[in-house]
Amino acid sequence: MVNYPKLMVSEKGLNNSLLSVNGLSVDFETIYRKIEVLKEVSLTIVKGEVVAVVGESGSGKSTLAQAIVGVLDSPPAFITRGEIHFNGERIFPKDGKVVDYRGKGINMVFQEPLASLNPVYTARKQLEESAEIAGIPSKNKVRERVIKSTLSELMIRDVERVMNSYPHQLSGGMRQRVAIAMAIIQRPKLVILDEPTTGLDLIVQRKVMSLLLNLRKDNDSSFLLITHDLAVAANTADRIYVMYAGRIAESGPKRDVIRDPMHPYTQMLKNSIPTGYSDSGPLNVTEGSPPDMAHLPSGCPFNPRCPRAFDKCREKVPPLIDVGDGRKVECWLYER
Amino acid sequence: MKDESILNVSGLKVRFRNREKRGFLTGAAEKWKVVLDDISFSVNEGETLGIVGETGSGKSTLARTLVGIYRPVSGEVILNGKRIDYGKKVDLVYLRNNIGIVFQDPIGSLNPRLTVREIVREGIPFNRKISRKEQDNSISEITDLVGLSSSKLDEFPETISGGEKQRVSLARALVNRKKILLLDEPTSSLDVSIQAQILNLLRKLREELSVNYIFITHDFNVIKYMCDRIAVLYYGQFLEVSSVQDLYENPFHPYSAELMNANLTLETSNKFESQYEIGEPSREGCIYVNSCPKRFSKCSLPPPSIPLGNRVVKCWLYSSDDAKN
Predict the structure, then answer these.
(1) Are A235 and B274 within 8 A, CB to CB?
(2) With an 8 Å Cβ cutoff, are A213 and B272 in contact?
(3) What are phi and psi of A253, to 5 degrees?
């Protein structure tokens, strides 16, 4: 996809930013303790940009998405600090007037289409509902036409059959496309995709991703892509945020983050993807698994697995260090 | 047949009873659904075979048939020179003792009521008289080898992490040494950094225990890293069997080419130009004819498996009598 250097420059002024999340913290409150699952997360999306949030399970990436859309289950989850601005308006914390942005401004596509589609209604019924919310009139079959054109935009050939099917009658790729159609029929400014292609086959995955990226060209929509797969992010995003244990470990333009990762965790993620043939050497990863959020190690949360950790890493949590060129790293190695 | 091949499968066919409801007026639906058709391959000593395919292509059915969970209707399975008769219990026991299996879902394949130690003990066959102490010795030996700390042995599956669960599955499959280990998507439910750890472990085990893997996955990067030969499965048929390097550098079958094209790596960037749509498999002629961009008149007949050097391709494009229009 095309890179937008102009937009990157304007990011500093935040004038052009569509979504900005500032210092967002989310706590999960259980009977026994409070667990901080998101810590001071800041994120910006510029108009027309595709931003990927990459992280392993438990890193808080889905919580971030849910907090932005406003569908956090609370209890147990509570936003304790931070602000979310969308399209120039503050959507969290709400001050008095309720800003209605869901459905018109931000839409979300969930990972499991079977769970996000209602099993007892046909695809047609669910798409109509979505179109109704967007205010598309049902008169003169306008709504029907909009639905059909949206589905054919997603390269569905037998539109009529798909519309009259129940979710269980459709294949995985088709289901995900219906879920995406429900999200984009309202022409939102921002689409949040939570692992949209996990569990889909390679060919279907490429299909779904290419359709989404085409939409971005056509409608000038922005995308927030949440994924665990660095390769998917490398092939879609303009900028990448890498999350670890509820923090942004590294952020920056895709090309730089993929080619020259700075944070040791990003380096490990990159090394984890096998590239060579069977005669190549072992993959360069350290043992250990992502930390339990309730029992984080002291200092940098990555220090037990980090090959380059030193004393300071075990004592103090590193700040987010701006290293220039739009890149930020949360690591003591880059302290100046 | 080469002498060194451990497992030799030829013409394997598996079918399931068709559960689809019969139409009210349209008459009977087909009674059988052929899930695997004419599957032939061999696994040589010291070689890892990879099987790739999409959902529903029959990858898992093939794995389950090879350990005797499903029974083929025709075809031959020869293990260590012994022909397996799926009707005989002795043969099935022989099959199970020589071929281990690790399933994709580590949660579903471990009994939640047993501790890790007891789960690994399940892998020791009942028909072999081994004292409790020897069993414990081999359990601690194998769990050590797969990198499970001994403190985990008395825990239940729900308290250990996903990577550790997969290590337990591996230990259970290998506690009784096997010639062949079937790995059915062993890493696809794991995080990438954990997947890398498991891949490293699998390579280590391959060297230390001289076990041969049949690696089933849909992840091409993993196949490339782990396997020597690769078989491309599409709706129950092997469309291409070749060495990994050949397939990567020059895929012959149009479907393999499409699969290779869909593979994402860090080096490729924005590889999402829209290609042709993959349609339903065809019931007549070549199974891939509905989606193939290179189809021609001859494709309405089922293609034979054409051997080309060290690869086998099921495609009319490569048939020697150049009847191509």
Answers:
(1) no
(2) yes
(3) -60, 145
Average pLDDT over residues B241-265: 87
Parallel, antiparallel, or unpaired: how do β-strands B180-184 and B212-217 relate? parallel
Of B55, B162, B164, the CB nearest to A172: B55
CA A202 to chain centre: 20
What φ, ψ does residue B212 adopt, rounded to 5°? -105, 140
**Tokens 């539109």, located at residue:** A159
Confirm if A270 and A260 have CB atoms less than 8 A apart: no
For A297-306, the pLDDT digits (tens) are 888 999 988 9
Peptide linkage before A93 cis (omega within 30 of 0)? yes
pLDDT tier for residue B20 given thresholds of 50, 70 and 90? low
Residue range A308-326, pLDDT digits in tens: 889 999 999 998 899 888 8
**What are the structure tokens assigned to B17, written together?**
């009873």
Q: How far apart are CA B119 and CA B121, in angstroms?
A: 5
**Average pLDDT for B32-51:** 89
Q: To which residue do tokens 């930013």 refer?
A: A17
Q: If 0-12 CB within 10 Å is exposed, 13-18 middle and 19+ buried, where does residue A190 land?
A: buried
A206 contacts in chain B (CB < 8 Å): 261-262, 264, 271-272, 275
Beta carbons of B63 and B184 less than 8 angstroms apart? yes
Contact A276 B55 (CB under 8 A): no
Measured in angstroms, the CA of B224 and the nearest CA of chain A are apart by 5
Measuring CA to CA, how many Å separate B155 from each of A101, A148, B120? 47, 54, 12
How far apart, in whole angstroms, are the C-alpha atoms of residue A166 and residue A196?
A: 20
Asked if residues B80 and B98 have their Cβ atoms less than 8 Å apart, the reply is yes
SS3 B24: coil
Per DSSP, the three-state class of A297 is: coil
Q: Does A268 touch chain B (CB under 8 A)?
A: yes
Task: Give whole-number Cα distances, B77 to B42, B63, B65, B74, in Å.
Answer: 10, 13, 10, 10
**Beta carbons of A236 and B55 less than 8 Å apart:** no
What are the start-end ranges of the E strands in chain B?
5-17, 32-44, 49-52, 74-79, 82-83, 99-102, 180-184, 212-217, 229-234, 237-243, 306-308, 311-313
The strand pair at B82-83 and B74-79 is best described as: antiparallel
Nearest residue on chain B to A156, alpha-carbon basis: B277
